[in-house]
Amino acid sequence: MSTEIPQAGGAAAPLLGLLPTVGTPAPERADAARNRRKILDAAARIVSEDGPEAVTMNQVAHASGIGVGTVYRRFGDVSQLLWALLDDRERQFQEAYMSGPPPLGPGAPADARLDAFLDALVDRVGEQREILLAAHSAAPRARYHSGAYRVMHTHVALLIGRLRPGSDSTLLAHLLLAPFSPDVVHHLTVEQELSADRLKAGVRELLRLRA
Q1: Which of 12, 45, 132, 168 counts the highest number of beta carbons within 10 A?
Q2: CA dist., res. 47 & res. 73, Å (int)
Q3: Tens digits of residue pLDDT in 43-84
Q4: Do 142 and 201 fall within a single domain?
Q5: Co-location of 138 and 160 in the same domain
Q6: Is the domain of 98 the same as that of 119?
Q7: 10 in any annotated domain
Q8: Which structural domain range is residue 55 located in?
Q9: Is the alpha carbon torsion for 108, 109, 111, 112 positive or negative?
């Protein structure tokens, strides 16, 4: 039985994983890469302003300045486009914390990198909250088996291991990432109306309660 997630217009598409497994993107011609970038950026603006349910292929084509036929050929339908958008943003996030400039990337002390990572994760989940929440509702446990989660967990566990040698860093990393589940972030930011800055401050305070 396949897991499905509703897409705009009431149809459904296979859910391959709550978050994408991010690898090296397939090579593209320069013009194709530019068009892809324009389409994804346009879709991201629409999601940010009006939510994922507002995304249509025609609207994305208009916002990007790319012909609607090209948008369909590249992404197939709205569901595939939204998953491509998640994959794109996850790829950017991984590149930032794995090889970007410090303090998020290598070159900063472990405590500074962990703070920067958690701050960036608040922004990452907040930016894509509605798409992630829809996926989470369809398959609540799939998040923990995705490639993206495994990479984040490994990164956090390594930083905790440097900060607390001898600790159960594998377990602590899971517990530290737990509040970033899309349903928790939705509850805090939408239902409790907490700002991203307050969430970041709260996570840092929690880390230091027993320091």
Answers
A1: 132
A2: 21
A3: 989 988 888 888 899 999 999 999 999 999 999 888 888 888
A4: yes
A5: yes
A6: yes
A7: no
A8: 28-76
A9: negative
